[in-house]
Design goal:
Leucine Aminopeptidase, subunit E, domain 1; eight-stranded mixed beta sheet; about 20% strand; elongated
């Protein structure tokens, strides 16, 4: 199902059909009198007296061909509240026969001209469905014609669309099955982003071996597919300005390798590349909305398979940083991919900060469920920015501890470190502690463990189940509020 938004000039009259009108939280309908006929006004006014006004969206069927929808806005309604209302609108009316509506922006009892933009943004995000492999696709469409003088500006329309396109790209990538979106195909698709204005560099196995990225390469060596590091650069400022850096784990399918996962729910491991998909969606958004910052996205793309050439428990590899790692469990692979990607990003791009995203540990789901991503950071300022931004867009993060005392749990007798904590406990923290060892020059860094947030079987406020696109809106807002 798709949602079409039209901003072409259209005027709401008393004869207009299928109206979407806004009122204040007390359902003061008097101000809408000029948009409906006297008969309709009397009919709705009487019904409002008996309606449950705790519901913020109320529908009135005037006839079989006309519906009037009243939406109540709180006086302090802002972005997230308006977006959630848009999503509820979609849920309420997606299956109705009436598909065309006129949304009258003049009736919004708020000063902000962005209210409509946020409402429609939520509606669009909720309408996403991954139907690529269905032989019978939904043919239902909703079209909203936006009238009145409180429309978002052309610039704001572009910004909302860019974020939607980025979030949808992220969801598309996460939703693809492993037999389609393997590392070779993923790298090919990333190369196509050049058309959006991104500078794309693809490092294949030969180049990675020459660079010494043995931690990343070790993860993918059991697969018939290639392993890659891909950089995506957006330059919205002069080249001397330090970029913001975003790094993502792209394990296209994770069997666990020789340390094989149980068969139950292994099919979900197609989304073990969600961290990389967030980075890709973000970079597309920044390019489309021509963000006034410099940014770089770095993703490590591998497939973790138990082949005859697969990495073994007990192997020792030398990372790009020069530090050696003893592989005690091949299913703790994401941190190996990120280790090389983080050091390379810091050394190559010398960024203002680095935020990495990964479906890294099941332990974070035990800790935080599907309400918060785990945040680990060496920088209080960056942490606060992420926490505050997460609350604004309802993509929340919760800061978890890092402490040098955890280091003893990942120290190895045979190498500089081991890739798991065999003692047990603090699984997410020791994984983050491991990653922190590959930030060599004290660059402000934050690690987001999004294992509980990237995919939802039951859906959320702005998604209908499946890939959520979590992180694209969070990081766009982080940039917009603090760095543009």
């Amino acid at each position: 199902m798709s949602v079409q938004i039209s901003y072409k000039n259209i005027k709401t009259t008393k004869n207009s059909t299928n109206l979407v009108l806004f009122v204040d939280e007390k359902f003061n309908f008097l101000k809408l009198k000029k948009y409906v006929s006297p008969k309709e006004y009397s009919f709705i006014s009487d019904l409002l007296k008996s309606k449950d006004l705790k519901k913020r969206i109320i529908s009135f069927d005037i006839s079989s061909k006309k519906r009037i929808i009243i939406i109540s806005l709180k006086k302090d309604s802002q972005g997230a509240d308006l977006e959630n209302l848009g999503a509820k609108f979609y849920d309420n009316f997606k299956n109705f026969k009436i598909k065309d509506y006129i949304l009258n922006s003049e009736t919004i009892p708020l000063k902000s001209n962005n209210a409509v933009g946020h409402f429609l943004h939520g509606l669009k995000l909720k309408s996403y469905a991954f139907e690529k492999y269905l032989t019978k696709k939904s043919k239902n469409n909703i079209t909203l014609y936006i009238s009145g003088n409180k429309k978002p500006s052309a610039k704001e329309q572009l910004k909302f669309k860019a974020i939607e396109d980025g979030a949808f790209l992220t969801r598309d990538l996460v939703s693809e099955p492993g037999n389609v979106l393997h590392p070779d195909e993923y790298a090919r698709r990333l190369n196509l982003l050049r058309k959006d204005g991104l500078k794309v560099n693809i490092y294949d196995q030969k180049k990675l071996k020459k660079l010494g990225m043995n931690a990343l390469l070790g993860v993918g060596q059991g697969s018939i597919r290639g392993s890659y590091l891909v950089t995506l650069e957006w330059n919205g400022l002069n080249k001397k300005s330090k970029p913001l850096a975003f790094v993502g784990k792209g394990v296209c399918f994770d069997t666990g390798g020789i340390s094989l996962k149980p068969a139950k729910f292994m099919e979900d491991m197609t989304y073990d590349m969600a961290g990389s998909a967030v980075v890709v969606g973000l970079m597309k958004s920044l390019a489309q909305r021509k963000a006034k910052i410099n940014a770089v996205g770095v993703v490590g793309l591998v497939e973790n398979m138990p082949g005859g050439n697969a990495q073994r428990p007990g192997d020792i590899v030398k990372s790009y940083s020069g530090k050696t790692i003893e592989i005690l469990n091949t299913d703790a692979e994401g941190r190996l991919v990120l280790a090389d990607a983080l050091t390379y990003t810091e050394e190559k791009f010398k960024p203002k900060f680095i935020v990495d995203l990964a479906t890294l540990t099941g332990a974070i789901i035990v800790s935080l469920g599907s309400e918060y991503a785990g945040l680990f950071s060496n920088d209080d300022k960056l942490s606060k920015q992420l926490i505050d931004t997460g609350e604004k867009v309802e993509e929340k993060v919760w800061r978890m501890p890092l402490n040098k005392n955890f280091d003893k749990l990942i120290n190895s007798k045979n190498a500089d470190m081991q890739n798991i904590n065999y003692v047990g406990g603090a699984g997410s923290t020791t994984a983050a502690q491991f990653l922190q060892r590959f930030i060599l020059n004290k660059t402000p860094w934050a690690h987001l463990d999004i294992a509980g947030m990237a995919f939802s079987k039951y859906g959320g406020a702005l998604n209908s189940g499946g890939a959520t696109g979590y992180g694209v809106r969070l990081l766009n807002k982080l940039i917009e509020d603090n760095y543009e």
